[in-house]
């Protein structure tokens, strides 16, 4: 593990990327639909975030829900990976599982190959699909041979703070692959996550944006959200800055 663990912030906009950069993030994971666990951002969004932020890791996830994909979905995500790299992303965040809870090695290999198709160095992160695997630690054993840069994980628990034992086991199981602790991370939980040997911590540092409505509100879709909840998430600069402070102090 490096002497200074990295801080990655999940963001959904160029403004979020700039906020993360200005308050201490080493890189950002860019997505849309954060309330759905994150979905693939557009090429234009990636380009805009690259222009203003720290290094951009683009999440590639073509739909919400499970991580068991058919051939058409894998082909679509491979195209999204190539587009993200062309748009300037320094890395992509990918993942896929088999129906029996194993890592879909063929899909991961196809997405990793797509990331390197441009012929320049590109980081590849396995996302939290690993936490829905039947055995996250056994899955981590496979990662050094797949050309992955890092894995984002809560240790298979609901939050990384609850999965510290598994996180430490994954660090030991995947030499050469950066283990990044993420999932329900708050600045106050960072010291215990660093103690597992994790090379980085990941959090969204999100807060709800104040609604800006000029007219009346009516519900759209089937979310069941109230008028107050029917908004979007933005990056909270104070949370990013506090996470940076705590992370540096934990080294």
From TrEMBL:
<comment type="similarity">
    <text>Belongs to the CutC family.</text>
</comment>
<dbReference type="Pfam" id="PF03932">
    <property type="entry name" value="CutC"/>
</dbReference>
<protein>
    <recommendedName>
        <fullName>PF03932 family protein CutC</fullName>
    </recommendedName>
</protein>
<keyword id="KW-0963">Cytoplasm</keyword>
<dbReference type="InterPro" id="IPR036822">
    <property type="entry name" value="CutC-like_dom_sf"/>
</dbReference>
<dbReference type="InterPro" id="IPR005627">
    <property type="entry name" value="CutC-like"/>
</dbReference>
